[in-house]
Each structure stands twice: as C-alpha cells, then as structure tokens.
Amino acid sequence: MDVTQLAIRPARPDDYESVAAFTRNTWPDREGSDYLPQVYHDWIEDDQDRKRTLVADAGEEIAGICQAVMLSSHEAWAQGMRVNPAFRGEGISTDLNGALFEWASDRGATVCRNMVFSWNVAGLGGSRTAGFDPVTEFRWAQPEPASEPADETEHVSSDPAVAWRYWVDSSAREQLSGLALDRTESWALSELTKADLERAAEETAVFAVIDDGACAMAYRTGVRTTETDAGETESVAEYGVGAWDDAPAAQTLFDAIKADAGVAGADQTRVLIPETPRYVSDAAWLRAAVSDHPDFVLAADLTGR
C-alpha cells in the first residue's frame, strides 16, 4: 500500500461504512464486539472544541481512526485507536496519534492518556511507538447490587471532604497515579479532584468508611445502560474508584456500594480498583466478581509541543 498519499483529516458521516468494515471484528479471537460501529455517528456529531475524531484517508478506503477528548483544561484522552488490517505496520497509529497530540496541545493539554487491554499486545506496542509511556493498571471489582435496601450505618459518611481526605493519603491514589474513572467520558480516566467528589455528592453518591478515622472511600460516576451481545439491555452502576485500608473496611465499602446500586436500579456494578495483589485478593475474598484481565493506562507528555 502507498501510504505516502494518506491524508489525516476529521471523520465524516460518509466514512462510516469503511470504518465499520474493519472495526466490526477487531478482535476475532475474543468474545464481544467492537463498540465503534455503534458509536461512530454520535462521536462525530459531538465533535466540537472538546472532542476530535480523525481518520487516515487512503482514497478508496479508510486506513485508521482515533479520537481525542479534552477531559480537563490540561488532560486529553485518546481512544478508539483502530487500524485497517490492510495498512498495519505502516505507521498509521503514530500519524493519527501525532495529529491528535497536536490538536490537544493547541487546546492547552499537557498530557494525553489512553487505555489498552493488557492482552492487546499489538495495541500496547503501537501505543509505545506513538509516544505513550506506562502509568498504571487497574481492574474492575463487580459486587452484586443489593436486592433489598440496607440499614444505614454510622460507619459510612457521604461527606466528600472525608472521602477526599482519605483519598489524598491512600495507597490507591499512589498506585493509580491520582487517576480515577472520569465523571463525564465513558471508559476514560482523569485526575480525581476534590471538586469531582463534591459534584458526585450532589449528583450521584459518595462513600467514606470511618472507623477510628477514614479507612475507605468510593464514589459513583453514574449508571450506564449497555447492550449485551444477545441484544438485551442492562444497567451498570459505575464507581470511579474504590480505595480501602483492609478487608473489613472493604466489606463495609462494598456493602454501601451494593446498597446504592440496588437503589439506583442497576443490574450490575463496576468499581475501579488498583491492580495489586492486596486489592484484587481482598475483592475476591469478599466474594465480589473481578474482571479477568487488568487494563493498562499510558500517557504521552505534551509539554513543549
């Protein structure tokens, strides 16, 4: 393929069929389908100063696609990096990410992060080649929503200041480099701030476990409706991070999360936790389901661009 004729440009509605053709079966040896064909039109319709979707145009077909989103005044998030199999090995990922780095830098971003499944070796290699460096890894704990309302406990506070105080000095914050699930962009991680917890306390839910001082915290980013491979819909209560000192604190925190998810009418929960032996084994010990593989977060330094 002659990649010298490639044009990096904003995605258009009429690119859909070409993009869908090489993204419908992105990971043929894995269960589940790629989400890009389902979100493509919403993605590009929503493109404004905060979001940009680019494609590599090879003339008769699209060679690749990627999107960047501004999560804060200085944080960008790259997602949906896909390369047409016919063009793999030609540096398409590097070209697309480079254009998005420039776009994000022009808007004040000093860092651009992305997330890659730990099993996606090609994606990890492409991210490193494009300029992303390793930052952290996490898993999802998935405690079952409670079927009945739980009794209130004096050990759980909804005060965001208490939750923030615990987070600042927690091992989870250190392990996650201060990152948690973003409150506005699905599947993105951003720097957790006190203001985020204050907004969550007003709009969703915040939990701080207290036992001779704060010993655990979490907050809900929202409840997301997803479609299963069988075509059914289910609601998932998502929690930006779960942090705790020990298994008893985790038990109290998980009980609060399960009760909150039940009240919210969620079918499932998803709690972001650090990928460490203690956090993952604590969740397993408490009989919460845990995702099979960790996810890796990487970051590109945009200062000086």
Descriptive terms for the model:
Aminopeptidase; alpha+beta; 2 domains; 13-stranded mixed sheet; two-stranded antiparallel ribbon
Assembly category: single chain
The helix-strand sequence is: EHHEEEHEHEEHHEEHEEEHEHEE
**Average pLDDT over all residues:** 91
Strand proportion, as a percent range, falls in 25-35%
**Count of individual beta strands:** 15
Counting H and I runs of at least 4 residues, what is the number of helices?
A: 9
Q: Biggest sheet, open or closed, and with what strands and sense?
A: 13 strands, mixed
Summed up, the domain count is 2
> Can you name the CATH architecture of the largest domain?
3-Layer(aba) Sandwich
Spans of at least 5 consecutive residues with low confidence: none
Terminal residue distance: 30 Å
Helix-and-strand structural type: alpha+beta
CATH class of the largest domain: Alpha Beta
Helical residues, percent: 25-40%
Radius of gyration: 20 Å
Shape: globular
**What is the fold named in CATH at topology level of the largest domain?**
Aminopeptidase
